[in-house]
Amino acid sequence: MNIHEYQAKELLKGYGVRIQEGIVADTPEGALEAAKKLNAETGTSWYVIKAQIHAGGRGKGKVKETDSNGVVLAKKLEDVSEKAKNILGGTLVTIQTGAEGKKVNKILVAEDVYYPGASEPKEYYLSILLDRAKGCNVIMASTEGGMDIEEVAEKHPEKIIKEWVDPKVGLQGFQARKVAFKLGLEGNAFKEMVKFITSLYSAYIGSDASQFEINPVLKTSDDKILAVDAKVNLDDNSLFRHKNLAELRDLAEEDPLEVEAGKSGLNYVKLDGNVGCMVNGAGLAMATMDMIKLSGGEPANFLDVGGGANATTVEAGFRIILQDPNVKAILINVFGGIVRCDRIANGVVEAYKSIGDIPVPIIVRLQGTNAEEGARIIDESGLKVSSAITLKEAAQKVRAAIA
Ligand code: GDP
Ligand code: MN
Fold first, then answer.
1. What letter does residue 338 receive in the DSSP assignment?
2. Domain count, the chain
3. Which H or E element spans position 125?
4. For the chain, which residues score pLDDT lower than 70?
């Protein structure tokens, strides 16, 4: 589960990680109030207004309606509400949102931390994630902060520092010092970075996160180390023991169809194609999507109905797929291993009847226990549904349906 930057910073702060302070707002007036409060608390008189969406690249991204960037600086209190107004309610398009962009419902009004001083402020990159192959957590750091880290990794792999932490042993002091040293820090900034990494690692473990990405981590002109941005990804399977974190979920950030599917226990991911598919098992779903492509179509979604598919799950799946206006045909590909094919076939027929007239052709490929009987039920149903036993047959029928 992803959370917003302002929530992530709150979480980090709770573990003693120094952050760029800010106050969240959802109206231009609220933004001005937030700025005043921030001025009283931190003494700052420059403010950064940051769109809160579940996507990065906001600084370079643009709000469609106003052409404002997703992260802007206000050097006067009087400018805050106007600049907030240009972001709030708008559609922010960044390199990570896709062309349709994301609606901005909240902004974070933050203190400016790039103030001038004894040295130039400098941006670093720091992340912690799970290295499944090594069975370890890995801390990744770079002096190339603020940049697109994938690009750094590709062009200058030597600029990415990696330190693996055995979760059984935990982060050792020397490891945090090693990372800070390799980042070229010294004096107070070195000590601050060690503290930053140590508290960040405790936050990562304490919140059962699967990924933390702090880009940029800033060394201020007076040698403080703090998080300017924070991307936190929590492990869904751990949320049962973090009720307070589970509450941070923002459904407005998720695809409505995916949320609805989740309620029915379906694993659905919306895609851009024209052939809807409903499959049991993730592996078979992937293979089915390949098959749709090979037959000249494009999958409209990934949908795994799970092992125990029945009329209720099939109906829920149908309803979700049919809400996608791009769907020109539906392919149901089910392996009757745990569940018998005749049961699935009856489920499809029942679901069809319950929904009423389905405007697109449906191809049902059932294989496994009682496959023939399943095919017979489909063919004799009198509905606009055709059956297939082999994948090849199913592919041909999909091709014919979208031609
Ligand atoms: P992202 O673009 O979605 O990754 O959002 P970030 O939170 O990383 O902010 C984008 C950029 O805004 C940063 O890389 C900084 O260059 C800039 N920025 C953020 N906070 C401040 C600030 O306090 N002062 C100034 N001058 N720039 C800031
Ligand atoms: Mn960032």
1. S
2. 3
3. strand 122-131
4. none
